[in-house]
Design a protein that fits this description.
The chain has 169 residues and is mainly beta. It contains two helices and 13 strands; from the N terminus they run E-E-H-E-E-E-E-E-E-E-E-E-E-E-H. The protein is elongated, with a radius of gyration of 21 Å.
């Protein structure tokens, strides 16, 4: 079934849990119409002047595409900074080379369509803060604290012995 999201029915709402400099607004008309994509996720975003869309990041398992609908912003990627304008399409491949962040350097809002693949999970990495974010669980970890596969497993025999004493045949 086709669902039409009319431009006259847009309602931008500020994303929750944001801090200063990272205020981003998302059109909630998709949710109000019950549109819940399974693999091709999308949002219409409004980035006001002086704001960043998110922390600088990349996705391990998702591709992303921005289309600037109105206004302009400065795009940060591993190659540096570049201004994107109304009508521009920007594709971000998965992995480090697809790292990105938008900043609205203008005096007008920048509205853009954010389309991304979703396979049910993703891992986002944040090079500036060295974090890893697990999607959709929302867990965030410090990337510097890495463990070996068998770290903490040295006493497995005692776990089994404890279980055996409580096991009734």
């Amino acid at each position: 079934m086709a669902t039409i999201l009319k431009s006259t029915e847009r309602e931008f709402k500020e994303n929750e849990n944001r801090i200063d400099n990272f205020r981003l607004f998302t059109d909630i008309s998709r949710m109000s119409k019950g549109v819940e994509p399974q693999n091709l996720n999308f949002d219409l975003r409004r980035l006001n002047p002086g704001q960043y869309c998110s922390a600088y990041h990349y996705h391990r398992f998702a591709e992303e595409l921005f289309m600037v609908i109105s206004g302009a912003a400065t795009l940060r990627t591993p190659k540096g900074l570049e201004v994107v304008n109304k009508g521009d399409l920007v594709f971000f491949e998965k992995g480090e080379t697809g790292a990105h962040q938008l900043y609205n350097h203008t005096t007008e809002p920048c509205v853009y369509l954010d389309i991304r693949t979703f396979l049910g999970y993703d891992v986002c990495e944040y090079p500036d803060s060295n974090k890893i974010y697990l999607v959709p669980s929302g867990e965030i970890f410090d990337k510097d604290v890495q463990l070996g596969y068998f770290d903490g497993e040295e006493n497995i025999k005692s776990k089994w012995e404890e279980m055996e004493t409580n096991y009734v045949i």
